[in-house]
Specification:
GtrA_DPMS_TM; elongated; single chain; transmembrane helix; membrane; mainly alpha; transmembrane; GtrA/DPMS transmembrane domain-containing protein
């Protein structure tokens, strides 16, 4: 808690617009996560869980890009395809996090502890949530950063 005469620290806590942008980012990401998980379930009917996690991530990533570009970040001055490539680069880092957590939980951790209730779906939801902050920072400072 800040004392009445203290300045707030720099960053999102000090800037209501930055807080709002992060809330919008979470809403866009939440929507994309739902697309991600539902498409993983559907894809899981025709491909392995491991492959479905990757393909579903691409579906969710495309939804996240469209929502972030439209509602979260200011125009960067780049063409949409350039932003999408930059967005994909940030997400290449995130998919590694998602895959390791999702598959690690579903194939190693949950069986070891006897957790079986929708284990693949729970593992995937946890995996999708893991890169939230790193992705926000990557998209803010790289994907949608203003062109110099």
């Amino acid at each position: 808690m800040l004392e009445p005469d203290e300045e707030p620290p720099p960053g999102p806590a000090a800037d209501p617009r930055a807080r709002w942008r992060f809330v919008l980012f979470l809403a866009a990401g939440g929507t994309a996560a739902v697309v991600n998980v539902l498409s993983r379930v559907a894809l899981g009917l025709v491909v392995s869980y491991e492959v479905a996690v990757v393909l579903a991530y691409l579906c969710g990533m495309t939804v996240a890009f469209a929502l972030n570009r439209a509602f979260v970040f200011a125009p960067s001055g780049r063409a949409a395809h350039q932003e999408y490539v930059r967005f994909a680069i940030v997400n290449a880092v995130a998919i590694v996090q998602v895959w390791i957590v999702s598959v690690g939980l579903a194939r190693l951790v949950f069986p070891a502890i006897g957790f079986a209730w929708h284990a693949e779906t729970v593992a995937h939801i946890v995996g999708v949530a893991v890169p939230t902050v790193t992705s926000y920072l990557g998209h803010k400072h790289f994907s949608f950063a203003a062109r110099r």
